[in-house]
Amino acid sequence: xxxxxxxxxxxxxxxxxxxxxxxxxxxxxxxxxxxxxxxxxxxxxxxxxxxxxxxxxxxxxxxxxxxxxxxxxxxxxxxxxxxxxxxxxxxxxxxxxxxxxxxxxxxxxxxxxxxxxxxxxxxxxxxxxxxxxxxxxxxxxxxxxxxxxxxxxxxxxxxxxxxxxxxxxxxxxxxxxxxxxxxxxxxxxxxxxxxxxxxxxxxxxxxxxxxxxxxxxxxxxxxx
Amino acid sequence: xxxxxxxxxxxxxxxxxxxxxxxxxxxxxxxxxxxxxxxxxxxxxxxxxxxxxxxxxxxxxxxxxxxxxxxxxxxxxxxxxxxxxxxxxxxxxxxxxxxxxxxxxxxxxxxxxxxxxxxxxxxxxxxxxxxxxxxxxxxxxxxxxxxxxxxxxxxxxxxxxxxxxxxxxxxxxxxxxxxxxxxxxxxxxxxxxxxxxxxxxxxxxxxxxxxxxxxxxxxxxxxxxxxxxxxxxxxxxxxxxxxxxxxxxxxxxxxxxxxxxxxxxxxxxxxxxxxxxxxxxxxxxxxxxxx
Lengths: 224, 291
Hints:
The structure holds 2 protein chains of 2 kinds.
Chain A: H1 6-35, H2 41-53, H3 56-67, H4 72-81, H5 89-114, H6 117-125, H7 130-138, H8 143-158, H9 162-167, H10 178-187, H11 191-223
Helix pairs in contact in A: 1-5, 1-8, 1-10, 2-5, 5-8, 6-7, 8-11, 10-11
Chain B: E1 2-12, E2 15-25, E3 30-34, H1 41-49, E4 56-61, E5 64-68, E6 73-74, E7 82-85, H2 97-104, H3 112-120, H4 136-149, E8 154-158, H5 166-183, E9 186-191, H6 194-200, E10 203-208, E11 211-216, H7 218-221, E12 232-243, E13 246-253, E14 256-262, H8 264-268, E15 275-281, E16 284-289
Parallel strand pairs in B: 3-9, 3-10, 7-8, 8-9
Antiparallel strand pairs in B: 1-2, 1-4, 4-5, 5-6, 10-11, 12-13, 12-15, 13-14, 15-16
């Protein structure tokens, strides 16, 4: 019996794109958060952490409102950029980035904070620019945190259900990711298909996490 | 030549105070900032490196403006060519010993300089190792080599030897002295170890609560105190000089510098940096080396 592999592809495509965008936005943001002294820092920290505690349906609900063409945000995207956000893959990506944001930012931020300031200062006095210092000194020295952040946000995006349910719906090839497909198959009593998707997700997530812990142990042993 | 005149408000355990320092440092001079913790020594050093901005005043180096409180002009640390040796060494853990040195090279500098420094500092054996696998003394040597690899115009040392055991400390002090003379480097060191200050610096600047209270040669600053009536003290040999048939030994006892006369026999067993017992016997003090 053959199963439709599309939901699985979609899931990993979503997770990969989300993680890539998260790295581009989240790593600089985490660096900024680690060093900034702005007064509203606690507010920002609370906002970043919200997806950890909020029911996904709350976030999903507000995103749905924001994505609808009647809202200025959704309107802007649809008319200026030409993207329909509600019930589309692009909308899922935006939602996933927001939803997985703390999973990347938290480990990376604490990684930056754990580095002694003297490393940065040493690089500066040796004539290196902020960018050179960031790329050649800071990032390589928080590799375990980076790895943790990337993997956690990737895995978390795979495991997303509530938000997708709210704003993505169930469009095959567009928003029907594996987590939704499982729900869908169970609803129609297709336990075999549900089991197939579930088992694949379970195995892949387990292998990813196991790899991280093994790598981390190796890195720690090298340092220690 | 460095002309420095800076003010900065500082917080210490005793409350707020003002760092207010005027200082001229000659080209090639080895100068030590001496004083208790919290007197503002490190802040002064960091201001020179550009890691801290003073509240006011100015820093001029050979006519160039490094800092001017009036115009707010500050030369970033990257452009000052002032190598700073940190108390924690601040070696980059992701790079090998050689990598750390190469990182410090100025664009277009010859790689030969690295080999030269590795050779000179005896780092050959460990050049492929990561800093985390090195001992304190080894890290210190790497940090010094890295600071020099950047071809600095000014070398800033923040209590460079505080974390080291006695023997390593003495050896590294010799190395610093040799390299400083070799490159004719203007050097500013922060220290509160009298024997170190005595050995290395040409001029000592004493800082108390953010102000310079004394400056002069180490001998002037730490004038030999008068001997106590009853004594048997542990001390450290700072200098041995010959005076005709006898030797004059300068010692650090506790926090004081004393000069005693030693016989040729006694002096033959002594070296700069040795720990000794200083005891009274009839009229002459006796020096016995302890290991």
